[in-house]
Amino acid sequence: MSNYRESYPLAGETILITRAYQSGNSFRQMLEAKGATVLEMPALEIKPPSSWQPLDKAINHIADFHWLILTSANGVEYFLERLHHLGKDINYLKNLKIAVVGKKTAHFLEKYNISPDFIPPDFIADSLVTHFPESIEGKKILFPRVETGGREILVQELTQQGGEVVEIPAYQSTCPDTIDNTVWDALVKEVISIITFASSKTVRNFHYLVTQALQTTPQLTLSSLLTEVAIASIGPQTSMTCQELLGKVDIEAQEYTLEGLVDSLVKKQYTS
After folding, report:
1. Which of 122, 126, 197, 235 is the most buried (most CB within 10 A)?
2. Tens digit of pLDDT for each residue in 134-155?
3. Domain closes at, from 173, 201, 232
4. Quick one: 56 and 162 in the same domain?
C-alpha cells in the first residue's frame, strides 16, 4: 500500500482544473499520472484578437524594436502564427532580443527553434523588470499580450525605467457563457476535493460562473459550496484573488509553474 501511495499520491482526489482547453491537457496528464481523477471546467476561452491590424503593423516594423517580451504560451503562439501568416520566418527576428516569463513560455518558444535571450529567475512578470539584463532606458519594447484583463504592473515598471512599451493585442481571453453541467453537479454533490487556479483571471471567471449558477439553487451559497474543497493556487497574485473572491486559499505552489503546483498538491497529501 505504501508503494502505491508513493506512486499515486493523489489517488482518491477529484481535482477540478480551470485552465482553457488549449492549455489544460498537459496539466491534466501530470495530475492523472499522480493518481488524481480530473474534471475540466475551462474558465477561459482563448480567441484571436478583435483586430489583427495593430499586431500586423508591429511585425512589419519589427526593426524599430529592441526587445520582444512574451509572458504566456498563448502570446508566443498567436505572435508566431501571425508572423508566419505575413510570410515571414524566425530569421526575421534575428536582430530582436526576446525575454520570456516562465519555463513553460520558454519551452513553448523553443518548439519554434527560438531560444530566449532572457528568462528571469522567478516565474512572475515583476521579476523580469528587477533582473532585466541591460538598461531599459531608451529601449523600444514590443509586448504582444491578452487584449483585456492583463496585469499592468509590468508595463508601468518598464515605462518608469525609461522604456517605451508598445502593447499589442495578440489574443483574447474571455469568460464562457455558463458553467458545465457535469462540473456543477460534481460541485453540488461534493465530489470535487480540490480546485486549481493558474491565474487571477480564472479565479474571477470561476467566481462569476458559480455566482450565476447559484441563482438557480438558493439553498446553497459560495461558502457552503466550497467548505470541503481545497483551493490551490499557482502563486501569490492568484492567491490574493482567491482570498478576495473565494474567501480562502489552502495550497500555494512554491515554484510558480504547473509542475510546481502539482508538487505542492503532492506535498500537501503527505502532510495532511
Report:
1. 197
2. 999 999 999 999 998 766 788 9
3. 173
4. yes
pLDDT in tens, 177-189: 999 999 999 999 9
**Interstrand relation of 230-233 and 194-197 (parallel, antiparallel or unpaired):** parallel
Domain of 117: which CATH number? 3.40.50.10090
Q: Which candidate, 207, 214, 242, 67, places its Cα nearest to that of 137?
A: 67
Q: Is residue 200 part of a domain?
A: no
HSE of 230 in the Cβ direction (CA atoms, 13 Å)? Answer: 15
Cβ atoms 41, 17 nearer than 8 A: yes
Count of the separate structural domains present in the chain? 2
Positive/negative CA dihedral, 93, 95, 96, 102? positive
Residue 63 neighbours by CB distance under 10 Å: 8
Pair 79, 6 in one domain: no
Return left, alpha or beta for 106; rule: phi > 0 is left, psi -120 to 50 is alpha, else beta.
alpha
**Which set of grid coordinates corresponds to residue 137?**
532606458
* DSSP single-letter state for residue 199: S
Report the Cα 10 to chain-centroid distance in Å.
22
Place of cell 498567436: 78
**Cβ–Cβ under 8 Å, residues 13 and 194:** yes
Coil, strand or helix at 64:
helix
Q: What is the pLDDT of residue 246?
A: 97
**Run of H or E including 232:** strand 230-233
What is the domain extent for residue 168?
47-173
